[in-house]
Specification:
By secondary structure, the chain is α+β, with helices and mostly antiparallel strands. The protein has 2 domains: 108 residues, Pseudouridine synthase I, catalytic domain, N-terminal subdomain (Alpha-Beta Plaits, 2-Layer Sandwich); 147 residues, 2-Layer Sandwich (Alpha-Beta Plaits), CATH 3.30.70. 30% of the residues lie in helices and 24% in strands. The protein has 7 helices and 9 strands, in the order βαββααββαβββααβα. Strands 1, 2, 3, 4, 5, 6, 7, 8 and 9 form a 9-stranded mixed β-sheet that branches. Helix 1 crosses helix 3, helix 4 runs antiparallel to helix 5 and helix 4 runs parallel beside helix 6. The protein starts with a strand and ends with a helix.
């Protein structure tokens, strides 16, 4: 069956899905898009591919998906009508933001970069008053080309070498470190969460800057610097040469987020609110684009 290739930008809340990739007996993003295509009778084997894999709990401002639509559909459908049709069949918690026709040889995984935010305040050990100076030094260590074997969950056959283009603190207007911003062409599994754990560990005193330096410079000596929880992570944007960015560049204003409380009991309650705050932030981004 002849088809035309499209890329679509799709956002989703991490708490609504068990990750992006199809898994048996649980709701995933890829599975939900697949079901929507089947209901629309647009499905064909191999017609769907996601750009970035995300774990359960990870929220996404927008990811990219490649969808090959039958020409009988695409010749009569506008990009706007494709977005509306898919959204009519997606579950609450996911949204298609935009769609664009691309060349048939376009590869959705060949992104120019991927940018993540991690809200460091969500990590239990994170101190209320954090000195940004050692954290900025840690960020500078992360930037550049490294073997990230000690800061990822390695999969057999994967190259552990990655180039991190940007690693910086996400600061409030009064200079309080709220989170982490990290950008690279590609990431290893759990890489951002393990980097976030390292930054948090330096802030809390659990580890030293020298421990992070050793983990990067001596990847043949295994060390575990921890893995931050998935709920603090947001895939903020993907830049692809064949797809126009559907949302404005730039970071959200962290001043709109509540400050983490000092009391441990209040912190546990605050975690629930922090999840709602990220969800509300994403919904505003999507509604502004769709309206």
């Amino acid at each position: 069956m002849e088809s035309d290739r499209f890329m679509v930008a799709v956002g989703y809340h991490g708490h609504s899905f068990h990750g992006s990739q199809i898994q048996p007996d649980v709701r995933t993003v890829e599975g939900s898009i697949s079901n929507a295509l089947r209901r629309l009778t647009w499905w064909a084997d191999g017609c769907l591919e996601m750009s970035s894999r995300t774990d359960a709990g990870v929220s996404v401002r927008f990811n990219l998906a490649r969808i090959d639509l039958p020409q009988a559909v695409s010749k009569n459908a506008s990009e706007t009508s494709i977005v509306r049709a898919l959204n009519d069949h997606l579950p609450v918690g996911a949204v298609v933001i935009s769609a664009s026709r691309v060349n048939e040889d376009c590869k959705v995984r060949y992104a120019s970069y991927r940018k993540y935010l991690y809200r460091l305040e969500c990590i239990e050990e994170w101190p209320t008053n954090s000195d940004s100076a050692p954290l900025e030094e840690a960020c500078r260590m992360i930037e550049g080309q490294h073997d990230f074997s000690n800061l990822s969950r390695m999969e057999e056959g994967r190259d552990p070498i990655r180039i991190v283009d940007e690693c910086s603190l996400w600061l409030s207007s009064d200079g309080r470190p709220v989170g982490l911003v990290i950008r690279a062409k590609s990431f290893l599994w759990n890489q951002v969460r393990r980097i976030a754990s390292s930054i948090s560990g330096i802030s809390s005193g659990r580890i030293k800057l020298a421990d992070l330096e050793s983990a990067l410079e001596s990847p043949d000596i295994p060390v575990d610097l921890g893995r931050a929880p998935s709920e603090g992570l947001v895939l903020w944007e993907i830049s692809h040469p064949d797809f126009p960015n559907p949302l404005p560049s730039g970071l959200p204003n962290p001043d709109s987020l509540s400050a983490r409380p000092e009391d441990p009991r209040e912190y546990r309650r605050w975690l629930s609110m922090s999840e709602y705050e990220i969800s509300a932030l994403l919904e505003r981004e999507w509604l502004n684009r769709l309206n």
